[in-house]
Amino acid sequence: MEVWKTVATVELTKENFDRTVSENSFVLIDFWAGWCRPCLQFAPVYEKAAEANPDLLFAKVDTEAQQELAAAFQISSIPTLMIVRDQVAIFSQPGALPEAALTDLIAQARALDMDEVRTQIAAEQAGGATAGEPGTPDA
């Protein structure tokens, strides 16, 4: 039986971003730049996580080459890690994570009930408060 070795990460551009995120249910995105020392230190940790989680899509956005994409996501500090599940950004945080923290974060993201997440987002977009919550008047 032949095992295919695939590239652990996909390079995202403004041209392929929307299609990639919509075609994959779980995408981790590393916003980085070649001159960024913490980004370069995080890269092997990210690659190792990609190899350990072949069912997930690990992607990278070079913020120097993809300035429009970085601006669209308001990336002001790199590296920034973002996780998108079912086309919903469920995590975004700047800073290089140690291997154990990244492994834990992936496990937490896998465990999320996306129906519950969508319900919370809908509630926030509808005004955020439900009747009976402390500090909110009942309608």
Q: In a nutshell, what does this entry contain?
A:
It is built from five helices and five strands, in the order E-H-E-H-E-H-E-E-H-H.
Mind explaining what this structure looks like?
By secondary structure, the chain is α/β, with parallel strands linked by helices. Helix content is 39%, strand content 21%. It has 5 helices and 5 strands. Strands 1-3-2-4-5 form a 5-stranded mixed β-sheet. A hairpin with a 2-residue loop joins β4 (80-85) and β5. The N and C termini lie far apart (64 Å). The model is unreliable at 1-6 and 130-139 (pLDDT under 50).
Give the topology:
Blueprint: E1 9-11, H1 17-23, E2 26-32, H2 37-52, E3 57-62, H3 67-72, E4 80-85, E5 88-94, H4 99-111, H5 114-125
Parallel strand pairs: 1-3, 2-3
Antiparallel strand pairs: 2-4, 4-5
The helix content is 25-40%
**Biggest sheet, spatial arrangement of strands:** 1-3-2-4-5
Distance between the amino and carboxyl termini? 64 Å
Oligomer: single chain
Q: Beta-strand percentage?
A: 15-25%
pLDDT < 50 stretches: 1-6, 130-139
Figure out the total of helices. 5
How does the helix and strand content classify structurally?
A: alpha/beta
Number of strands: 5
Instruction: Specify the overall morphology.
Output: globular
